[in-house]
Every structure is written in structure tokens, then in C-alpha cells.
Amino acid sequence: MSSLMSRRRWLKLAGGTLASLAAAGRLYAAPPGGPRFLLVFLRGGYDAANTLIPYSSDFYYEARPGIAIPRPDPSSGTGALTLDADWALAPALRESVGVLYQQRQVAFVPFAGTPDLSRSHFETQDSLELGQPLDGARDYRSGFLARLHSTLTSQGPAASAAIAFTDGLPVALQGPDHIPNISLRQVGKPPFDDRQARIIAAMYAGHPLEPAVASGLELRREVAQAMQTLADEMRSSGRDALSIKGFELEAERIARLMRDEYRIGFVDVGGWDTHVNEGATQGVLAANLAGLGRGLTVLAQSLGAEWKNTVVVVLSEFGRTFRENGNRGTDHGHGTVYWVLGGSVNGGRIAGEQRALARGTLFQDRDYPVLNDYRAVLGGLFRSLWTLTPAQCAQIFPQITPVDLQLV
Amino acid sequence: MIKSFSRGARGRLQRAAPFAAALALAACTTPGSPAGSATSAKSAAPAGALAALRRADVLWLQRVTFGLDSRTLADYRRLGRERYLDQQLHPRDEALPEPVAAQLRALEVPQTDPAGTLGELHERRRSLNAMSEGADQDQARKALNEEGNRLAYRAVRRQLLRAVYSPAQLREQMVWFWLNHFSVHQYKADERWLIGDYEERAIRPHALGRFRDLVLATLEHPAMLEYLDNAQNAVGHVNENYARELMELHTLGVDGGYGQQDVQQLARVLTGVGINTGAAPHLRRDWQGSYVRHGAFEFNPARHDFGAKTLLGQRIDGEGFAEVERAVTLIVRRPACAHFISRELATYFAGDNPPAELVDAMAGTFRRTDGDIAATLRTLLLSRQLTALPAPKFKDPMRYVLSAVRLAYDGRTITNTRPLLDWLNALGEAPFGRATPDGYPLTGPGWESPGQMSRRFEIARAIGSGNVHLFDAEDTGAATTNRFPQLSNRLYYEAIEPFLAANTRAALEQAGSPQEWNTFLLASPEMNYE
């Protein structure tokens, strides 16, 4: 691959300043095979109860007179999609995630979430991304994906390369390893030649931002190159890159970078805080879910052979109130539903501990309870994916016993 | 001078020489220059000509302003630190340079109350919805949408022009700070029609005033009521969104000693606080005395829960809008509020993780003065942490872009703010652009990731090479000839050059053109930190 040459050239140009990048594992193309993990964070608290619908529960229909999604009609090709005797999938996801579910490439984990009870978006997002015990002193520069990354560095830099496809570096990837980020919404020609980039990087030699600067300049160049190749390929195969947009376009680009370079990825998608008029079969939430579902389908297709090595987890900081509020919306709640997708996922099922949904099931008479702690679930998943030792698991999620939900 | 620019190690000396003459001239014509400067400016070393500024002065001024410009330095020299600060805290002269003032006058600062604006908007929407589907309706919908965009952009233009040019720099920073603290998002509901008024009438007048007044002004503004859904909060249809953020984000902080019970109780207190753009409702006689209305703001007793509440351990009896005022007073007088606001201010001005003793001192002032923002800022800005070589603070995108433009185009009037907005968008900090109510991050880690650094350098290049359209005519789009700015100007030699690190000097010496030299300077740590 041509970018290997240019990486070497860059390394030579920038001298020792990139040592920490090599430590972050970013200077080596990931060989084919080997597990890949992508976290898709739905910021704002998506309404899980109108996504994975507990249609066997009469209480669901009582609690949501204005926004409940009608029970699935097995004879119909539209509407909610029956997943099992209790759960159905939102109509908006039927053609995308629903198809993957039927191919047994998606599992859902209901009653999942964090122990954080603040019901604050920001507090809960932070505590989830940090993945640290709630009662201890927190280290705000240590996210759980950054700890996963540093745990995996023992398996070689190529096996642990991590990246965030975001404007800023998310808390989940904050840590000592200077994991890079780049937004894939717009990617153009890099503005600097090697000489200029080297001079700018040199101004930060010995400075705390030295790794961020070097990594930012190099990644910008490298991604521009990879995206140029992708655009050329799409053009020659008769597909028009401009015809897809939003999260689908990002997903196409993410797939390229996860396929060729990275093993741990992070992306976030906003717009889920539906306090007012969230809609049901159609509406704001349905439109957001449809876009997300299409993007995940693109991701699965574009990863090609690596889809079988990839696990995608979709989650949110919390669920929403089980009852609709006075404005045909829902307020901040507690438990939610995690999605686990991938070519080798043990899918087509609803995983984890569950309870029949009645009023008495609700936490504080308002929310889904959390029966599946996010750290136990993700810890168990990571343990299976990378065959981690107990000590390594404890490094990623301290004081937590991983639970094996047989997701992979 | 540009032609004399040459590659190689002698570059800096060669560039420096022509500046001596320019500086000598400027020094002679600047009223109030230190007495010695006219003579010493004859020397060949321009930095030495105005050596009066210490590094601590420069760093302090960078915090108090959106970045240095000539006027800031002149005012500071004339007044000294404390008097300069007092003028900033209680600005009397906020006159903008005439070409900027003329632009602002043309921007139609909204004179009508939002009730009128919203009423008209609702009317237009009604007639739009009544139209039969088809091209005409699409056209009308598009026109309405474009009007929203135009109004929102006007608000952004006004904010940016004042931030670049107002002599009351601290007020402008505080307007930004409070807009961020009481953040609203222009793309929710009808916010685009409201944000101009929100800045003008709710935030700006109280930016250096009393915190309680600021909270109540935002609480009563339709921009906030719509953004955090309290306009929908009514007895029997409780929506707790605003109640939660009012305590978590606006006053007490997430660890501020309240719980879910308090959120629910405050949401009940806030029932009936909403928006009305039409006629007053017909009310039962015993409710009529409780009805409150100014402009689009309405307290409607028919939508209010008059039951007793217990908020933060205090009983609040059902008495209508007075409950809201009581609740706000109760909240803003909590020690947690003084502490939370002081900490936010200290983080913005003093740096990430401000020392506890500084925050405590500020919180003491805040409580003693019943939430006087100017007094709290005075404690902060005259503290040892700010006056004696403050620890470097990474500039957020707003400060970075504005300080670069203030330095690069010192004294030249921008006629097109679109590029500024584009840069802020690219760096993820556009005015009124934060989708979530927490506002943009105030600390470095929010802005200094690899992806953002490389974006910043691209913007440095755009500004430094003059490949921008800041001087095009905003409305007609008529382009002017692009000139790259002269960053190696008097301001640079006075306040930046003397304090450059060796690495930065070495980079500047390798510049192959003045544009590249500008780019490197704007990309340097010295320009990215204050």
C-alpha cells in the first residue's frame, strides 16, 4: 500500500517527534483480520422504548397513548418488525437493522445502562465514557476506550490502532496515548506540503501539544489520500459519492479507515433528545433512526470481508421515561437498549437479563431499570473479542466482573 | 518591503529594519505615549522602542480582551491596569469605530418585541399551512426559511463585529460567556427569529450586572422558554427539561446539592411560565390577578400548579409567578451557586482547573455582593493568578479566530463576517451553534485534539495568506482585491516578538514568503495560547 512509503517518509521528516504516534499504533496499516470495534454514541438519550418495542406489554400502550408504536402485524410487510414474542423493532429500522437482525448479525441488550442516576446528559455521558467506578475520585483524562487501546498495545501497534471520527476528541478516548481524531464530514486536499508541515510541527517540539500537532497534520494528509482513493474507486464502480450524505457518507468513510487502518473507532450522532413531539411510526425519532440504520447498513457493506471481524455497539447515555410526557415526548430516564452488530455477532436475539414490562418493573416508577451494567457487558465483549486476562479486563473497567452474554 | 523579503537566516533582520522607521513615526504621533518613546524609537531595535510592556501585562491583557489590538495597548498604557479594568467592568464608552457602527446600524437591531416577531411568524405559518400543496407553498416555505437564516446570521454578524471592534472588550467576552452559559441553539423551533433579541435584551444588559437579574431575564425570554421546552410545561403536562438545566447548567452545577425530587418540584413551580403572542386568555376571576405578561412572555395561572412545593428543603406555597421569583432567589443565594459560577468564570479567564483559593475568593465576593458579576470579575482579574504571569491557557476557537483577526487586520474594518463564521464553524464553535444546552467546553481538552489542531493551521493559512473575503461587500458579494495582512506590524514588535520562544523564531526564519511567515506565526504556540 502506497501510504506506507509516505508514512516512512513523514517519519523521517518529522524525526523523533512522532515517537509517541508509533506508540499509539497509528503508523502501521492494520493487516487484514483481527477484531475491530466501533462505538456509535447516540448523544441525547435516544428513546429505546420506541426503538425496541415491548409490544407484549399492555402497560407500554397505556403509558404511551399518543406515541406508542402499534403492535406488529405479522401478515404485513410494513410497520414494526417482530423480533420475538415480546419485542419488535421500530418500523424506521425495518429495512436496515431489521434485515441485519434476520441475518443474525444484530443482538439487542435491553435493560442496559450505567449506575449514574443524575439523569443529566453531560454527567452521564462523561461517567459512561470514563467507565470508572462512580464512588471514587475520577480521572477525567482516562476514558475506557483509551484504556482498551493501551491494554491492546501489548498485542502490537497494528492491533490497537484507535481513532475518533469526531470534531473533538471524546472523553472515551482521552488518555496518555494521544489518540487522534478527525471528522469525516468534510475531507479535502491537505493544505500543507511536507516542508511546511514539518516546520509547524517543529514549533511544538517539547510542547505538551507536540503529539496532537504532529498527529493532526499527519492524519489530515493520510486521510485525504485514503478518501481520494475511495472517491476514485466509487467513481470507477459507477457509484456517486455525492448521492449519499449525512451519517451514510460518514459511515462509508469510517468503513474505509476501519477496514485498512484502525481497530478501535468512535463516532457520535446527535439529535435524540426528544422532549416534545417525538412522533411514533413517523416523526423526528423515526427519521433519525432511519438515517442511522441506513448508515449502519452502508458500514456493514463497505467493510466487506472485514465485517465478519467487526463489532459495532450503538448506545446512548440513558433511556427515556417509559411514560410519554405532557408534550408527546419523553424526558430523561435511566435504563436503555444497546445494539450489538457485526458479521460474526451471535445475533438474531435479545440478550442479557430481562424482565416482563409492567408498571412494577419500572425503576422509580418512571424508567427502565438497569439490569445489565454497561461495563460488565462491554467488558465481557472485549474479553471475548481479544481474549483478555482478568487483569486486563480490570484495567479497562476497574472493580467490575465482566459478564459473558455470548455476543460473539 | 514585501519585495525585500528574502529566504534565509537573515530574513528576520531584513524584515525588522523597515519597521524601525514606521514605528518611530507612529510613536511620535500617538498621544499619551510614554515620554521616552519618541527618542528611543530612533534606535534600530523596534522592540526596545516600546519596551514598557512586561510579559505579565501582555498576558493579562490577552485574557481581558479578545486579543490585542493597537487601541487596547494605547488604553492600557494611558490608564494602567486597575483603571483600565474598572473601565472595562463599568464601560461608559462603547462607541465603535464609525465604519463598524455604520454596519451595525444597517443590521436592523430588532426594535420590535419578540411578541410582534413571533406573532407575525405564526401568522405567516398559518397561511402557509392553509395553502394547497404545490410549488407556491414550497416557495413560501423556502422564503420563510431563508428569512430565518437571514435573521440568525444578522445576530451572528452583530456579535462578531462587536467582539472584534468594541473597546468594551470585557463586556463582549462576557456576552459570549453568558450566551454560552445560557446556551440556546438557533436551529431549534423558532430560535432564529429570537436569538438576536435574546442577546440584545436578555444577555447584554446584564452581562456585567447582577446574576439573579440575568437568570430571570433568560427565564422570561422566549428563546430560552422555547429552547428548553418550558413553554410546554403546564399543570398535568409537566416537562422538567428546563427545571433540570436551570439548576444543573445555569446555577448550581451537577453536584450542587439538589436531587431528582428538586427537579420535579422546580418543574412544578415553573408550570405556566411560557410564551403568548396573541390575546390574553380568558381567565377565571380569581386567577386574573395572577396573570403576568410582558411582550411574548406570559405567566398563565390556568396552566400553573398552585399546590405547595418543597424545593431544596424550603416550602414554597402556591402563589403564582412569585413562586418562580422566590425559587430563583433561593437557588442563586445558595453557596453552591456562588461557587459554581465563580468556578466557571475562573475556568474561562484563569485556566483549566483554577485553584480552589481563587474560586473561594470569587465566591466570597459573589455572595457578599449578592451576585454582582463585575465585582466577582474584579476579584478574579486582579488576583495573583491573573496578574503575575498566569499559567498559559489554550484559546478556544472564538478567542483564537478573533485574536488572529484583531492582530492581522488591526484598524482595518471587516465588511464581510462570513469567513469568521466559516472558521468558527470549521472549528466547532459557531455562535448559537451548540445543539446541546451545556454550551461549548471552557477548557483546553475540548479544543486541542489532533483534528482540531490541523483545522486551526488551515485557518492560520487562510488568514495569513489573505486568501479570504473579509473585505468583500457583504450584501452584494462584490469582491475586493485580496491583500495579505501585515502581521509583522507594530503591535507584533511591541507585544509579541519580545516573548517568542526559540522554536517559533526558528520557524519564522524558514518562511519563504510573507504569507508563509504569517501562517507560521498564526500557527505558533504563542498565538494559540494566551
The portion of residues assigned to helices of chain B is 55-70%
Q: Structural class, from secondary structure content of chain A? A: alpha/beta
Rg of chain A: 22 Å
Shape of chain B: globular
What share of residues are in beta strands of chain A?
A: 5-15%
Helix/strand structural class of chain B? mainly alpha
Tally of individual helices of chain B: 27
**How would you describe the oligomerization state of the chains in this entry?**
heterodimer
Residue-averaged pLDDT of chain A, rounded? 89
Q: Biggest sheet of chain B: strands, sense, closure?
A: 3 strands, antiparallel
CATH architectural label of chain A:
3-Layer(aba) Sandwich
**In angstroms, what is the radius of gyration of chain B?**
26 Å
What is the number of strand segments of chain A? 11
- The CATH topology of chain A corresponds to Alkaline Phosphatase, subunit A
Integer count of domains of chain A = 1
- Biggest chain-to-chain interface with counts: A-B, 53 and 47 residues
**Major beta-sheet overview of chain A:** 8 strands, mixed
Low-confidence stretches of chain A: 1-28
**How many DSSP-defined strands of chain B?**
5
Distance between the termini of chain B: 30 Å
Structure, explained:
The complex is a heterodimer of chains A (408) and B (530). With 408 residues, chain A is of the alpha/beta class. Chain A has helices spanning 2-14, 19-23, 58-63, 97-102, 121-130, 144-152, 157-160, 194-203, 210-236, 246-260, 284-302, 374-386, 390-396; strands at 36-42, 52-53, 81-82, 88-89, 106-113, 162-164, 264-269, 310-316, 336-341, 349-350, 372-373. In chain A, the strands form two sheets. In chain A, strands 1, 5, 6, 7, 8, 9, 10 and 11 form an eight-stranded mixed sheet that branches. Chain A has a three-stranded antiparallel sheet with strand order 2-4-3, with no helix packed on it. In chain A, a hairpin with a 5-residue loop joins strand 3 (81-82) and strand 4 (88-89). The longest helix of chain A is centred in the middle third of the chain and has 27 residues, at 210-236. Mean pLDDT of chain A is 89; it is low at 1-28. By secondary structure, chain B is mostly helical. Chain B contains 27 helices and five strands. Chain B has helices spanning 11-29, 37-40, 46-49, 55-64, 70-89, 98-106, 114-130, 135-165, 169-181, 195-203, 211-219, 222-227, 241-251, 260-269, 285-288, 321-332, 335-349, 356-368, 373-381, 384-387, 397-408, 418-426, 450-464, 490-496, 502-509, 514-523, 525-528; strands at 273-275, 292-294, 297-299, 309-311, 314-316. A three-stranded antiparallel sheet of chain B has the order 1-3-2. Chain B has a two-stranded antiparallel sheet with strand order 4-5. In chain B, a hairpin with a 2-residue loop joins strand 4 and strand 5 (314-316). The model of chain B is unreliable at 1-51 (pLDDT under 50). At the A-B interface, helix 5, helix 8 and helix 9 of A face helix 13, helix 23, helix 25 and helix 26 of B.
